[in-house]
Write a structure and sequence with these properties.
CATH superfamily: Metal-dependent hydrolases
Number of strands: 8
Shape: globular
Bound molecules: 6-chloro-9H-purine, zinc ion
Radius of gyration: 18 Å
Number of domains: 1
Helix content: 40-55%
Largest sheet: 8 strands, parallel
CATH architecture: Alpha-Beta Barrel
Length: about 325
């Protein structure tokens, strides 16, 4: 079989997708109109032209502005449902979806509105698409730990509607240890723990995500290849990295896709996975990430198989369920 066909058709899990980053410009304009929210762009094309980023912050500024059109439960449902249909088309059988409640509660949208809209889409995906979808609540690291604690409090009535917590937004200057106390509390609550680390930030942030926050997975983690001792730790403890190649390209983490270190991570025995991050902003969903990365870097069918296996190993589905996907 041709490699592109194998990549497209192989069953896979997605473990690093920000649902607000799946909001396509067309749907964003539709929501802006129906909610009577002003967008600082004249058209879909005008907005797409603004998707030319130089680093993480230049993206986040536009991403948070775009999320301003999300007001009603229906908006959150529609956004997630559109993503879940793309996931099904890309043979994603299981997806763990990040959401950023602080982006919405700060604008007066309630936690209940956000969680109910997203949860309803996840339920419908299981019933109608055969896609297994769960939610992971992310704290914004540019805000305070106290703000994160308030957010956790607001989410507690919906505790059964998310499986874990993560840490995202502006990395440099906001090390994982800033959130030591709130992650310790989440751990006591039995939540799964992940954090973005080593996207733009140094290997030191990956170390503290592991040793202080005690996360089970690292989101991105591509800077780890600069620290041989860290590479050894990640391999030995089988700590997964949720790598997002097209995101790294768009945010200039690597100058060209052929310079990406995914092959190096896999060949070092790390549990690396491929994910889309913010597909509406970075130029592609899961299969676009697989196809373009393999084309650019010359990875093989053996790497493809390894990535598919890794995606289920790294997921938070139960051990019994997991065996079915092997
Ligand atoms: C994000 Cl690419 C990336 N990095 C950190 N935080 C984020 N939130 C949404 N996308
Ligand atoms: Zn991310």
């Amino acid at each position: 079989e041709r490699l592109p066909e194998l990549l497209r058709r192989m069953p896979k899990a997605e473990l690093h997708i920000h649902i607000e980053g799946s909001l396509e410009p067309e749907l964003m304009f539709e929501m802006a109109q129906r909610n009577r929210v002003a967008l600082p762009y004249a058209s879909v094309d005008d907005l797409r032209r603004a998707y030319d980023f130089s680093n993480l912050q230049s993206f986040l500024d536009i991403y948070y502005a775009g999320a301003g059109v999300l007001i009603t439960e229906r908006d959150f449902f529609d956004m997630a449902w559109a993503y879940l249909q793309k996931a099904r088309a890309d043979h994603v059988l299981h997806t763990e979806i990040f959401f950023d409640p602080q982006t919405h509660t700060a604008r007066g949208v309630s936690m209940e509105t956000v969680v109910n809209g997203l949860h309803r889409a996840c339920e419908q995906a299981r019933a109608q698409l055969g896609v297994n979808a769960s939610l992971i609540l992310c704290f914004l690291r540019h805000l305070s730990e106290e703000d994160a604690f308030q957010t956790l409090e607001q989410a507690m009535p919906f505790r059964d509607r998310f499986i874990g917590v993560g840490l995202d937004s502006s990395e440099v200057g906001h090390p994982p240890e800033k959130f030591a106390k709130v992650f310790a509390r989440c751990r006591e609550l039995g939540l799964h723990l992940v954090a973005h680390a080593g996207e733009e930030g140094p290997p030191a942030y990956v170390w503290t995500a592991l040793d202080v926050l005690k996360v089970e997975r690292i989101d991105h983690g591509v800077q780890s290849s600069k620290d041989p001792a860290l590479m050894k730790r990640l391999a030995q403890d089988r700590i997964p990295l949720t790598v997002c190649p097209l995101s790294n390209l768009k945010l200039c983490v690597f100058p060209r896709l052929q310079d990406h270190n995914l092959g190096q991570l896999l060949d070092a025995g790390l549990v690396a996975t491929v994910n889309s991050d913010d597909p509406a902003y970075f130029g592609g969903y899961m299969n676009d990430n697989f196809l373009r990365t393999f084309e650019a870097t010359g990875l093989t069918a053996a790497h493809a198989h390894r990535l598919a296996v890794n995606s289920f190993e790294a997921s938070f589905i139960g051990a019994a369920e997991k065996r079915k996907y092997r």
